[in-house]
Amino acid sequence: MKILLVVPEFPPDHGGGIITFYRELAPALKRAGAEVKILKGSAAISAPQGQNRYEYQGIPVEVLETERYRKWQKRFAHYGMFRTLQNHLAAAYAIHEQVHSGAGFDVVEICDWGLTFAPWMAESAAPVLVQMHGSMGQIAHHEPVAGAEAESLHTLILERALLPFASGICTLSKANAEWWGETLGGSCHYIPPALDLPQPPPSEVPPTGYLCLGRIQKWKGPQVACRAWQLLGDKAPSLHWLGRDTRAGCNGVSTSEGLAAEFPGIWGKSIEPMPPVHPTQVPAVIRDARAVVIPSSWDVFNFVAAEAMCLGKIVIVSQGAGVSGLITHGHDGFTFPVDDAASLASCVAAVEAMTPDARAAMGQAAATTAHRLLGPETIAAQKIEHYASLAMPTAKVQTLARRILPAPLEHSYRELSFLDSLGPRSLLTHGIKLAVSRLLKFTTPKNS
Questions:
Q1: Can you give the pTM of this predicted structure?
Q2: DSSP letters along 322-385, please?
Q3: By C-alpha distance, which of 117, 114, 144, 143 is closest to 130?
Q4: What sign for the dihedral angle of Cα 311, 335, 279, 174?
Q5: What sign has the CA pseudo-torsion 174, 180, 181, 186?
Q6: Burial of residue 387 (number of CB atoms within 10 Å: 0-12, 13-18, 19+)
Q7: pLDDT in tens, 258-300
Q8: How far is CA 327 from CA 236, 278, 377, in A?
């Protein structure tokens, strides 16, 4: 079977769950006998023509060509009011063109993020599986961005309209499969991710502190952790939160600074924000923690928790994270209801009350569960079986998709001409306000 995986990022890049997913899956598919190729590209990742090919563990990787991407940016100039969406659509169409609509492949798997799947719904030379990791519209639904509401809604509507035309959609947690099933009025297939981590050497000292790895972002739940640590009071253990800070809204304030203001006795004290670490350091960081805490109000899966389980570590996971579906509460980890700080505090207290032997036994149970459910060979076999079940979309389906797809321009377009619909007074007022806000941003002392 010849498989094309279209992804927004891939090693040697490092970052979030999408990289982890395909870093594990692609080699497993190859070991299972499939012929695999990667096409990597997004609005943020492209390469000069002629410098866009390399190999990863014997798998050919091709990168979106920069000049091709720029050409399609111009063809979506009429989306200038939605600059992020314009760039993502340009990348999607450029990728589709660069690989000739998947000609020569038995199946194409495309990541949902960035609307990369959009042009494939109307034209594809192979069945198309859209892998749902956390789409732009879905992310915006769970954490709206001030100033980007219209663009986010437009994106979600496009996703809702186009995804039913795929040969199939699949995701890595049961909770996300249910969400998309309800949103699309159909079914979303569930296959967990492949994951296999070698056991690190034992820690030289007994682990005492707790750990969370994730962006400092509202839906990752730092405010829930702060409330739980408040409830624990003097009995609260230290918690290291490793991850980059984010800003609320298009021009919003630092999430970390907001937490420090709201929880002055907790954030920066018993919960210490720290910079993210390189992926190669993650196993050692997890090894040195007493337990890993995932307080997310929503996560499609959360690979950090799964990695911790593989490494034999106790996890305390919000039921808003898809990985919680793998955990039997009290046996191979702990789960707690979404945004329930009291339940999180109770779980932490339970871990603190356990003997070292009991903690070791729960950690071993977690490792057994993770390796049984997420074994790469098992997952690769499930994926290949699912690929084989997919059918080519009919001509009628592709014709219907074309009616919905954003149409690229065939002619020149005056950039930002959509502003013509606004009155001069509105434009002038907005321009002055924007200039003043930008000036204040650069002249106001950070600690004022």
A1: 0.88
A2: GGGGG--TTTS-EEE-TT-HHHHHHHHHHHHHS-HHHHHHHHHHHHHHHHHHH-HHHHHHHHHH
A3: 117
A4: positive
A5: negative
A6: buried
A7: 999 999 999 999 999 999 998 888 888 999 999 999 999 999 9
A8: 24, 27, 21
